[in-house]
Amino acid sequence: MRTNLSKLILLFAIATVIGVWSRVIGMSPHQALAVAIFSVSLLGTLFFWDFRISFVFLGISVLLASKTIDLEHLVAFSSLEIILFLVGMMVIVGLLKDAGFFAWIVTLILRIRNMTAKKFVFVLAVISALLACAVDEVTSIIFMVAAILEICDYFEADPIPYIIISVLATNIGSAGTVLGNPIGILIATKSGLTFEDFIIKAFPLAMISLVVMIFIVIAFYKKSLEKLDQQIKKLGSNEILIDLISVPPDKNTKAALYIFGITIAFIALSHRLDVMWKLENNTVLLIVPLVAAGLIMIWKHNKAQEFIEKDVEWGTLLFFLLLFAQTGTLKYTGATDFLAQKITGITGHNPYFITTFVLWVSAIGSSILDNVVLVAAFIPVIQEFQKFGIALQPLWWALLFGGCFGGNITLVGSTANIVALGLLQKERKIKISFFTWFWIGLSVGTATTLVIWIALLFLPFYK
Amino acid sequence: MKVKEGMTVKVTSLSPEMNAREALDLLLKMEISGLPVVDSNNKLIGMFTEKGVLRTLLPGYIEKVGTFTYHENPKMIKQKVAALATMTVKEIMREDVITVNEETALSEVARIMLVQKVRRLPVLNNNKELVGIIARVDVLKALFAEQN
Predict the structure, then answer these.
(1) Which of A234, A244, A211, A11 is nearest to A110 (CA)?
(2) What is the SS3 assignment for B38?
(3) Complex ipTM above 0.85?
(4) Does A247 touch chain B (CB under 8 A)?
(5) What is B3-147's CATH number?
(6) Are A103 and B68 a contacting pair at CB < 8 A?
(7) A429 touches chain B (CB under 8 A)
(8) C-beta of residue A66 within 8 angstroms of C-beta of residue A58
(9) Where do the domains of chain A lie?
(10) Which sign does the torsion angle of CA B1, B37, B58, A102 carry?
(11) How do residues A195-244 score in pLDDT, each as one tens digit?
(12) Are A148 and A142 in contact (CB under 8 A)?
């Protein structure tokens, strides 16, 4: 109780200092208040994750009461289109779960033939990354942890290295498509980048980074892998694991897979359909999950209520909605314009410096703070750079990769990390220390961010 | 009609330090699905149930993984079954227990049972001591007895 009170006092003290400092450097009272309120939300996620919604509720109320923003703009800035997209995707994921799709993925991992430690790491990393690309990082990590724990129990091996490897790959994979991470859709809708842009430009970089990660983890966990190889030799093949669980293929599973496949296909073609039907960029991208979710709820009308109530994370979405409104307030008051000018004051108008700044600040920031909060704050600042004639595309990619890869650096860097470690602690009473994670996280986080840095600075493709 | 007129007064209760395996054996012997856990002052501190034991044995993520079928017993479940002998009731019991007072009306008990989806409720006196237990069947019997 006393610790919580101290954290609360510290939170408001830091936010007040930031607010006062904003005034000192020349911001208007409304700009400084918007910055201070946003700092409260940002620190609220860091200190009081479970109560983060309370902070955005109170923050928005203060912004409205102080006339820092009006109701009309608050609604406009809340990015309802992103919220609806996420609702649609969550319903689709609910259907896939109900149809046994994820358990089927677990069976694929359990059935690896002629298992060796390196093969296990490779399969684990690739499936983690691809699953994160296709659904989202938090959903995918639950199933990966389930598979890892079963395999490690069977071979009596320490699950820690494999859980960490899977999380690292999940965070890397989550940058590969619009679907992998909420910041993907956030950046896509605000920048005008399409799903195709992500597939052509982000996905290959994510896969290259994944290869780099695999090399690093194999070297870093050499001893653990040797031990696993010894256990595999001692206990023989994974016969029991092969038959451990099954997902009977029935017409529902197939139908769910078809729906998911068609949804992904339409999402992939969304830009072309936008052009063909003369719609605004990303309109089809936002519509497709809603159409799919709507059809799913008609098809599975008995479970429609369950999909909406249990599979949609309303708390998270409500937090996002009000957080987006708060970052919109930063833009509305001109605070982001002010910050953009300050940043260009440091980096000049040199696109290389600005790209470097966005990439590394978002990576380091995401290692401690929630990446959605950080990216949401960065977006209006980046939009302001356009005024200075700076090409925005490399900055969007820098923000995406920094936000996703930075999450690998510390054990609280992303939601996937927290979910995986929470499961490990609950299921096996194993608590990973900060430094058990930090050295491998820092190595992978730094190396993969370097890959992105080089690509963004030197490949004309990303200009 | 009040709870005290329909409840079972002779209640077998468990101590939090009791061995979990022995407690489970007691449940199986008595052919009931749960027993209250009380401290040395007879204050209710939890419920030890078959469901709680199953929840301890099976992985916590099974509900999140979605639809699947087990064909073999995972190694960890076998290990957890063996480990039950080294665990105490306190480690498995559910602490957030819904209770009723002995003066509570039976209709209110019936309402709680339906709304909260519980089969039986521990009954406490004004000093928060365990004085009985009331099951669905007790409520029905008492309600019909009142009509006759």
Answers:
(1) A244
(2) strand
(3) no
(4) yes
(5) 3.10.580.10
(6) yes
(7) no
(8) no
(9) 1-68
(10) positive
(11) 999 999 999 999 999 999 999 999 999 999 999 999 988 887 666 677 77
(12) no
